[in-house]
Amino acid sequence: MATPNLITLTDPRSAAAEAYRTLRTNLMFSSVEKPIHTLLVTSPALDDHKSIAVANLAVTFAQSGNKTILVDCDLRQPAQGRIWGVDSDKGLSTMMLDDSALANPPLIQTDVPNLQLLTTGERPPNPADLLSSQRMLEIIGVLKARATYVLFDSPPVLLATDAALLGVKVDGALLVVRTGKTRRDESSRARDTLERVNVRVLGAVLTHAPKENAVY
Question: Would you list the domain boundaries of the chain?
C-alpha cells in the first residue's frame, strides 16, 4: 500500500500535525459520561477537504496506540481508496449484502500500525437507504468490537441526507470547514440540519487557515 501524502505522516512535527493530535485528545476526553468511540466527519459542501481531514485524524488516533478503523461512507464520491492508494471492490457495500463479510469485515491493514481501512466497495444506487438501514447499525456494532475508535468519512451535509442518517447512529459528528471556501451560511445550515435530527455535533475543524495564525 502506498503511503498517503498526509501531513501527520509526512511532517509529524509540523503545527498542522500537532493540531490534529490536539483535536484527537480533545475528542478522546470530550465527555466522561458519553465518550466518543464512533465519529462521523463531514462538511457542509464539496471541496472542504473533509476526507483528508478524517484520514489525518485517524492516523493520530492510531498513533496514540488505539486500534482504529477508518470507514469510507461517502458512497457517492469515495476518496479514501485514492488517498491510501488502494482499489478494492469489497468494502462497506459488501458488508451490507454479504453475511460472511459482516462476520469477517474486508478490512485493509494500512502501513500505519493500529489503523485499518474499510473502503466503500462497489457503489450502490441508493446510498441513503443503505446508511439508514438496520444493517448499518449491525455493521457499526461489528466494527466497534474490533477497534477502540471508528471514524466515518461521510458525504457533505448539504448535498445528501447521508450524513444526517448516519450521524444519528454514531456517538458524535465533526464538521470540516475550509478557510476561504466554506461559506458561513453553509456552515450554519449544515449544523442546523444535523442538530434537527438530534445528531450530536461536537464542533468544527477549520482547515487551510493562514499560517501566521498558527492554527490549522
Answer: 7-26+36-180+188-213
